[in-house]
């Protein structure tokens, strides 16, 4: 593109000026706003690939000025995203903010961070999204776009920018995400035999045979585990808490009490007795307020700690690639094994705390069989064969 030629003249206050910026390889448009109180010339600028684009941006800029919106010509995408992360997520969980920040620092700031929001156009965002679609799954791509859109909206509410260009683009399909896996019956039996007597064994037994979420198992206290054989009720666990910020479960439907298969009750009875003995041995007072799966210091375990121990258990169980499994797949295995055993999808959805059957059907269930029975009785039946042989 050739640099425009012609005699330049002094631009009057409020008049447009369009010129070629060789260093940026773009046309630049400016509106003179007079002088600051310090005597410095005050000009608002826009840029574009063509003069037509610059003229349009100048019209929008002057309209903003006429409407009294004090947008910033230098406000960048990186500034908008950081402002939203720092000030626009009050009350949100730290883990969620951390996820947003990681996605922004990985997929937004390196590619768009230096761009001025006033100059950013839909074509640039389309190109960015198409490029990110080659490395991100569709859900992650939508989340990244949402972060940008919400960041710009946050800037709009503070008169940093007028137009939310992120609302003008469509999110393309990304890469196919990693499908969740489910343990087979044989794998499940091997997992239930590994590291017997350890806390991770008890954790796996509870998660696989009752279907609690990882974030529900980690903060679980003995007050919510009912395994006393003298109680008239069937052994059960109250899934009433989570590691979420407010301590509540994911949804209202997630707050539930679940009957335990007898195998789970037996394992937890032995596990609790060993915890009580260890507590007495060091002269500490036992209370059922203690966590079921605490660290050595009695604190709640991190997800990383649980995942590391779970993979060690899988290694002992004979898995070739334990690093390819996560603790959440104990829950998908619970759903799939019940479905394979014939439990109706409506029952499974209620047990795992889903508000409907859509997620259960689409994400968790891997097999489909006729209906025969439900609940904890099914898990006793599924894993009873080996017990009968012992």
How widely separated are the two ends?
Answer: 83 Å
Strand content: 5-15%
Outline type: elongated
**Radius of gyration, in angstroms, nearest whole number:** 30 Å
Structural class: mainly alpha
CATH superfamily placement of the largest domain? Intergrase catalytic core
Task: Please tell me the overall pLDDT.
Answer: 79
**In what order do the strands lie side by side in the largest sheet?**
1-2-3
Overall helicity: 40-55%
Counted beta strands: 6
Question: In sequence order, what are the helices and strands, one letter per element?
Answer: EEEHHHHHHHHHEEEHHHHHHH
Describe it.
The protein has about 400 residues and is mainly alpha-helical. It folds into three domains: about 50 residues; about 90 residues, Tyrosine recombinase, N-terminal domain (DNA polymerase, domain 1, Orthogonal Bundle), CATH 1.10.150.130; about 200 residues, Intergrase catalytic core (hpI Integrase, Chain A, Orthogonal Bundle), CATH 1.10.443. It is built from 16 helices and six strands. The strands form two sheets. Strands 1-2-3 form a three-stranded antiparallel sheet, covered by helices on one side. It has a three-stranded antiparallel sheet with strand order 4-5-6, with no helix packed on it.
């Amino acid at each position: 593109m050739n640099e425009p030629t012609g005699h330049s003249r002094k631009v009057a206050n409020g008049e447009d000026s369009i010129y070629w910026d060789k260093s940026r390889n773009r046309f630049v448009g400016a509106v003179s706003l007079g002088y600051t109180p310090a005597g410095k010339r005050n000009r608002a600028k826009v840029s574009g690939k063509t003069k037509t684009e610059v003229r349009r941006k100048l019209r929008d800029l002057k309209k903003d000025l006429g409407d009294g919106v004090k947008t910033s010509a230098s406000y960048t995408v990186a500034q908008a995203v950081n402002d939203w992360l720092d000030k626009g997520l009050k009350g949100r969980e730290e883990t969620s903010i951390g996820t947003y920040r990681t996605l922004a620092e990985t997929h937004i700031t390196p590619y768009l961070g230096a761009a001025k929001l006033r100059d950013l156009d839909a074509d640039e965002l389309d190109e960015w999204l198409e490029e990110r679609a080659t490395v991100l799954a569709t859900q992650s791509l939508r989340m990244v776009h949402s972060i940008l859109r919400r960041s710009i909206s946050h800037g709009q509410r503070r008169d940093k920018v007028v137009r939310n260009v992120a609302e003008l683009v469509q999110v393309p399909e990304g890469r196919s995400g990693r499908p969740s896996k489910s343990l087979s019956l044989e794998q499940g039996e091997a997992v239930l035999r590994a590291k017997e007597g350890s806390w991770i064994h008890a954790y796996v037994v509870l998660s696989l045979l009752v279907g609690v979420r990882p974030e529900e198992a980690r903060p679980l206290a003995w007050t919510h585990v009912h395994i006393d054989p003298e109680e008239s009720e069937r052994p059960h666990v109250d899934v009433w808490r989570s590691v979420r910020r407010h301590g509540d479960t994911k949804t209202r439907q997630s707050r539930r009490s679940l009957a335990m298969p007898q195998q789970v009750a037996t394992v937890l009875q032995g596990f609790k007795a060993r915890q009580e003995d260890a507590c007495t041995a060091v002269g500490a007072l036992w209370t059922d307020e203690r966590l079921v799966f605490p660290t050595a210091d009695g604190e709640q375990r991190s997800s990383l700690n649980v995942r590391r121990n779970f993979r060690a258990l899988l290694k002992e169980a004979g898995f070739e690639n334990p690093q390819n499994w996560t603790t959440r797949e104990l829950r998908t295995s619970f759903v799939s094994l019940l479905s394979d055993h014939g439990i109706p999808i409506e029952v499974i959805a209620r047990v795992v705390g889903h508000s409907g059957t859509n997620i259960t059907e689409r994400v968790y269930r891997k097999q489909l069989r006729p209906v025969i029975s439900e609940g904890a009785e099914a898990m006793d039946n599924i894993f009873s064969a080996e017990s009968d042989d012992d």
